[in-house]
Amino acid sequence: MEGASIFLFSLLVIFIIKISPAELDIISNSQFLKEGDTLVSETRNFELGFFRPDNSENRYVGIWYKQDTARTALWVANRNQPPPSTVSPLVLKIVDPGNLVIFNNMSMIWSSNTTTTSPNATAKLLDTGNLVLMDQQEKMMWQSFDYPTDTILHGMKIGIDYLRGINWHITSWRSSQDPSPGVFTWDAETNGYPESKLKQGSMVNYRSGPWRNLRGTGDSIFEKNLRYSVIITEKEVSVNNYAENSSHVARLTVNSSGELQYWAWAEDVNKWKLGFKYPTDICETYNICSAYGICNVGWTQQSCACLDNQKFVPRNQKDWDTANWSGGCVRRTPLDCKNGSSDGFIKKSNILLPDTEGTWFNMSMTMEECEAKCLKNCTCMAYALPDASLGGKGCVHWFNDLKDTREYPSNGMDIFVRMASSELEKVALSTSKEKDGANIKLILSVAVPGVLLLIGFISIWLWYARKKKKNNEQPMEGGNEELQLFSFTAIATATANFSTNNILGEGGFGVVYKGVLEDGLEIAVKRLCTTSNQGVDEFKNEVIFISRLQHRNLVKLLGCCLKGDERLLIYEYLPNKSLDSFIFGDNQIVNLDWPMRFNIIKGIARGLLYLHQDSRLRIIHRDLKAGNILLDHDMNPKISDFGLARSFGGNETQGNTQRVVGTYGYMPPEYVIHGTFSIKSDVFSFGVLVLEIVSGKKNRGFNHPKHGNNLTGHSWSVYNEGRTIELMDPSLAESCHPDEVIRSVAVGLLCVQKNAEDRPNMSSVVRMLDGEGALPTPKQPAFFIGTDLLDADFSSTDSNQAGSINGLSITHLDAR
To answer: Which residue numbers are catalytic?
Structure first.
């Protein structure tokens, strides 16, 4: 009889599910949520219901943003307890004495485990996305915000509630189909002054820096609207991020690939838009520079230096010179502390304060008291004010080596590092000399300004006269008989005095303008910005290399202009923009059909073959990418931007550099890790470019939802599975030649093989693209997981420097 009752109850539930899905405002003892129903917040912003992740038969109770048709789960109740798909339907209800539970027939799948009892409890979804369980007096008994899964919504906290024994943190899903806890966590480090850390198991991948009450510091709408509120008491240690504008719906998520991502809801396109993510560069890799090292991010490189190059030196100089920073730095002069009387402190500004694990802090202490206490303790290595918003109060002491420090110009802090007295005397002596030198300079500037000005005018006039005479007598260095030295007046006139209406693009070098000479010739003028990270070396590089190169697939340099601080390069004008504006995403001007794309691939290959083999110099470009391929009237490709190029002579085949430059996503692993470059570096970049041209997707930024690979890794997967044609841009379906597409992808994969010696040279690439002979089978490429810089095979290597940030190199041009 009892079995029959259960059977009838199951049929009743199934019948209800099929005929009466509903939107509920509350769940009570008499009202429950069944599969098909949803519980909605008062303003209908959020809703709770049953869902299945993509390609999964498991069922979960979750919360999502109501306008999100994809139902991206922001919280999951039973992430560890999915009932099998074969069992009867589920219901979410309240059972006495006040527990919220998920029932499968008569079995309990999940419970809120509420400790407070209430005979008439109700559950409600708030407008913040918080599911709350309340007693008769509407006092909260339990809330989902106390038990986040992989997502933080505005109003949630990271930290610890000591009174209730709750640790607020988030844990990634195991995969996009499995919400059970993965290996990545975003949690509070409270062993010392609190900060947040992104961990993979017990290994730290990234940290936030010491908590501060502050506004978002970024330029985007995502960061400007953010506020951070810190609580540090005996009862609670937490940080809460919230939006100043209540209509700003956003979330912070740790994904299954280990990225911390901030998303905001975009009303115009009705979907979540990625605002920013961490880590974003090498310097955000935890402790990349080791003890007393500091990481620097520039336009051309990201690398480590000692905290103060005058007072700290690398522990192992030989390793340091090869970008192996694992040994860190040590003091040039050991501390000679005797009850603190022999030491003092030097100030380092605009930095991310070091890892605070193991530190001591007191939030009511003044900076003077902080210094005095540190000075008396010989084990205190540094002190700092952790939060500038507290009116000068607050003190943190470090007792171990300072680690995981980076330059932070936009929102950095000051730290005072303990030094031996002899080092402080050197600082005082140096300061004295600087003052004396400043006084002398002041006297000279007042006494002889006319003389100096006259000498300057004479020097400039003589230099310009010599240059002009040399230009009339012989070609400029490089051997190109047609290379001219243009007058500044002529170029200013041609560009309407560098009018903003004539701007074609802008990169690390400066701005590029369109101009028309007096004879009607259209030109593109690249003007070095006076604050550019590029200078004389890159300018000379471009002049020397391009002036010696003549090929239909290389951009043509017509001449240059030198006047005072002005450095201008004058190119042939190409009416179409760079390749990236034709193949990537929504920015496409005109869709290129397959014959055009295949012609571009082969043209780039011929241009590289000329650089590597047929020119008078063996040239390695070092920054080959879609943005540096320009297109002429007939859409023929021309390789541009030789500011980073290097040449070899004789039988040289490779070189090394401590200044790794280029663009993320195009640099081969041996270059990123060891600074080794060769013609095979360009071959790797070409392979990435081929895959991008075929697919219409960027290698960096592409993240496949199923396996997390970037474009290179995804291409390898579909190739191995015999589904190569699926990689093709869907817009090419009507114009493509499948055999050419498949051959192009295979060539691209051959070019991005992990080991440089396995990659073909460009003469072989040209033959393969022309259909000559059978193609070799590619080996596993040096593909990268997601947007991480290095794949698993290289991640154990002590790394090094990386290329330019945000997809830009220092010579990026958008158009000619």
So the answer is: 623
